[in-house]
Specification:
It is an enzyme of class 3 (hydrolase). Helices cover 36% and strands 14% of the residues. It has 466 residues and is α/β, with parallel strands linked by helices. The protein has an eleven-stranded mixed β-sheet with strand order 1-3-2-6-8-7-12-13-11-9-10, with helices on both faces. Helix 4 links the parallel strand 2 and strand 3. Helix 9 packs across helix 10 and helix 9 crosses helix 11. It is globular, with a radius of gyration of 20 Å.
Length: 466
């Protein structure tokens, strides 16, 4: 057995298959790291220590018998908006939630591939904010700079992967909730096509704006987790055509036409792109041009996409709030959003959904001229812990939009998007990661992944650890 336990998802899979390490050793190390960092990073809401060790022992038995599965014996984490049998799904909320009787479909697929789920990661209340803080669990911190947030709402998963507690994690993205924390923790985060990964037992999540997706340190690891978790079950409202994400990792993307975009969709609130973020995205654009791609500044026509987002998001909050044991324990900002969702959950919601196809045609016109859009993932570097604590609902919304105005339109469209690392706001100290996102049309995950893998080979961002 090797004395050096590998950290990456692909590396762990190869080491397990080659008999160089046991699942028990991997899971024990993961649990030890979680325990050691919980007082500081606070990445996990629930830890399945006993169950994970039992499952690791079973994985070792199967490996010794010659069985091979894509993730057999590998420790992974999932966000606490996803059902794991025997565990509550509190989604960042206070209260005594009952344990779930069954796994959600995405978790079922991970377990069927042999993964050992070591725990459920922290998320802000009902996944609303680009920070992972709350009275139910405290503050989740960024392993690159503990005074700063890892982002949200998949902040716990991002912190866990960035710190090496697990090699990869499953999160979700309703307005950038995967891509924002990936940007602020130096990770790959993929929001796939709507329905690519089932959200069952919900036929769709948050009226179709929320998708499940992977967080990982490399493009290959993210693509593998996406591949394994992909699939639908009877009752899913969105079942996109299959795409091959695995072979895309090693495929030359060819010469692509890339639109460099800094425009944000209309929100009626102030926002400003931090010059350090703009400079980082421009540097990536220059590297892409050096790799042979045509990179031209051009902007999608977003129009009034925000009017389609708000009813779907707030109505989704209202629906989810009905699962909370004691609604009075919810943050006052959440209760305000839930009230808005009741007002917008009828005719306004139906109008918002009917407007989606015209929006796709309008925004998607840019893909008549370009293959991919490159934009910032966020407008600012990571925020300090507590930056939005104590703000009113309206002031929180304004601050959130100012920091993170770039990701959410693609949730309305339902199309693939992925974050790639773009350097650091403080490059000499190697702190405060920044991100850029590749945006594509429907079912474009293979193109985005091929491009990201090519850039990764050039930038080798996975070599830097917090």
């Amino acid at each position: 057995m090797t004395s050096v336990i590998p950290k990456g998802l692909g590396e762990q899979i190869r080491a397990l298959a080659g008999g160089e390490v046991t699942s028990r050793a991997l899971v024990e190390q993961s649990l030890q790291r979680i325990a050691e960092t919980q007082p500081t990073l606070n990445a996990f809401r629930r830890v399945r220590a006993e169950a994970a060790l039992r499952e690791a022992a079973e994985a070792d038995r199967r490996l010794a018998a010659g069985e091979r599965l894509p993730l057999l014996g590998v420790p992974l984490a999932v966000k606490d908006d996803t059902d794991v049998a025997g565990e509550p799904t509190a989604f960042g909320c206070c209260g005594d939630f009952p344990a779930k009787a069954e796994d959600g479909e995405a978790v079922r697929r991970l377990k069927a591939a042999g993964a050992v789920i070591v725990g459920k990661t922290n998320t802000p209340e009902l996944g609303q904010w680009p920070f992972t803080e709350g009275p139910a669990f405290g503050d989740t911190r960024n392993p690159w700079s503990p005074e700063h947030t890892p982002g949200g709402s998949s902040g716990g998963g991002a912190a866990a992967v960035a710190a090496g507690l697990v090699p990869a994690a499953l999160g979700s993205d309703g307005a950038g909730s995967l891509r924002i924390p990936a940007a602020w923790t130096h990770l790959i985060g993929i929001k796939p096509q709507r329905g690519r990964i089932s959200t069952w037992p919900d036929a769709e999540a948050f009226n179709g704006i929320t998708c499940n997706g992977p967080l990982a340190r490399t493009v290959a690891d993210a693509a593998l987790l996406l591949h394994v978790a992909t699939g639908n079950c009877e009752g899913d409202l969105h079942c996109p055509e299959p795409v091959d994400v695995l072979s895309a990792v090693g495929r030359d993307p060819g010469r692509l036409r890339i639109a460099l975009s800094f425009k944000t969709a209309f929100t009626g609130t102030p926002k400003r792109l931090d010059p350090v973020v703009r400079a980082a995205v421009v540097r990536l654009a220059e590297r892409l041009a050096a790799l042979g791609h045509e990179v031209v500044e051009a902007e999608p026509r977003y129009g009034l996409v925000g009017f389609s987002f708000l009813p779907r998001a707030t109505a989704g909050l209202t629906e989810w709030s009905g699962r909370v044991p004691d609604p009075l324990l919810l943050d006052i900002r959440t209760r305000g959003a839930v009230r808005n969702g009741r007002l917008l959950g009828g005719a306004a919601l139906r109008w918002a959904r009917s407007f989606e196809e015209p929006l796709r045609r309008q925004v998607g016109a840019i893909f008549d001229r370009f293959d991919v859009v490159l934009s910032p993932t966020t407008a600012t570097p990571p925020l300090r812990i507590g930056a939005m604590a104590g703000l009113s609902g309206w002031r929180t919304d304004r601050a959130m939009i100012a920091a993170c105005p770039y990701a959410w339109p693609w949730n309305v469209l339902g199309w693939p998007a992925m974050n790639v690392p773009a350097g650091f706001a403080d490059p000499e100290r190697g702190t405060l990661p920044l991100g850029a996102q590749f945006l594509g049309p429907a079912n474009s995950e293979p193109v985005l992944i091929s491009l990201a893998a090519q850039l990764e080979a050039d930038q080798r961002w996975y070599e830097r650890w917090p």
